[in-house]
Amino acid sequence: MRGKPFREDRKWWRGMLVAALFVAAIPHLTVWLGAGRGHVYTGLLFNPYDGYTYLAKMREGWMGAWRFTLPYTPHPGNGAYLYLFHLALGHLARFLHLSLPLVYNLVRVAGAVLLVAVLGWYFALLFPYDAFARRFAWAVASFGLGMGWVALPWARQMPPADFWVSEAYPLLSMLANAHFPWALAFFLTLIRPGPARWWDLFAALGLALLSPFGVVLVGFLLALQFVVEYTFPENGEHGRNSQFATRDSQFTTRNSFSARLPFPPAASQTFCRGLLVALGGLPYTAYVYWVTHHDPILAQWTAQNRTLLPPWWNLLAAFSPWALVAVAALWRRHAAVWRLALWALAAFGLAALPSALQRRFLLGVYVPLVGLSAIWVASRPRRLKWAKALVLLVLPGALVMMLLPLKGAIQKEPIWYLSRDEYNALVWLRENTPRDAIVLASPDMGAIIPAWSGRRVLYGHPMETVDGPRYKELVGDFFRRCLKGAAAWKFLRDEGVDYIFLGPRERKLGGLPIFMPPQAVAARFGDVTIYRVPRGDGR
Hints:
single chain, mainly alpha, two-stranded antiparallel sheet, globular
């Protein structure tokens, strides 16, 4: 039995992995080729403002750091051993003499291919005897979205969740950043059907490094699963109603540590995997919680780091039609129903708690909804027609996401591109200023400077700038010329600003509110000027 789904799906495996490579790479290649000679593509396409923070973390690693400090805060404190994945990528980029955006996207594309492969493995274990359900769930879970596109005309303030809640959807995870696809792949590995393995320890560690909240979700889900398997052993992986029992799992049950536990076989395997998750993932997860609540700077950052759930109607549109079909599947007699339903229940249950980080618990929740829908569709007399109808309902959303880069490439969206002058100015900052220099720039350029030059800014991100709302208002007032004369000089002196970055984005707000003497010009590149702030009142 083991390996039969993989032999049956050999052509599917080749096609799905090639599709993953295509989907993850082509949108970025489109925007990169559209840059022309006058612009530089930043390497960030979906959710670029958060993407700049990841490049900024990589820049810290590129500069030799293994201890993360907030790059968007002028006075970041001592920092902590957070974001080790991105710091390691920065070290790798420096070792290979490659640009940060290139390394970031290569790792992202590799993670996308891995994620699709793990999804195929997961559904092969879940539906070993049903090729239709297995293939349908695999394809839709990998590349599908919801029906949020229907609500787009009425959701201008907050787009539907299937366009921006990247951790919930494998497709968005592949497109959004480098760590989500890897985190989701580790997560799926830890909740797969089958016996516990020694390498679950390292999967748990990898998940903790990438998404500590994923470790909490895995632990909660395995606890629920253990209760179900202990209470109803006939539904476990070795029970008479199971589709998951294999010669390999039976051998493992008879000859492993789990066989000596006083639980039913399936519950023993879940207990062992939970133990491996605790050993591999809990220590670092506990460290992250402790340091982000006890370090004074990181505690302020944590307090303003809010990722709340969208309204219910937004979520309903984003997860339709799969959430509705999944409810219908709950009454089907299939061994995988309870496992998938438990995942969805655990994810939405944790996300509904009164926490500031609700969305983080939606990691991959699109997958069980699609899996349950596949069970229902596969049981219908005209299952192919049902499958086509459901796919047609979600196809427009996926097409919008894939075609979005064409519009940005044509219009040269400034959030995706740097002008050649801006790029040269950022290189100059990196090569000619002290590492602890503080740069004042517009909020848009403030998001970019730490990523491309490694220099700190007064404001660059609503969550990663401590006391962000106040600094955003101060920076905006400066360039809108609300601060003038002595008030402007006092602001620069009090905040310890060393350089002022003046380019098209700053002039769009209003420009400089003070006169800078000619000797204050540190560098000029076309329409971008970098000023060195004189000490004193500037006169």
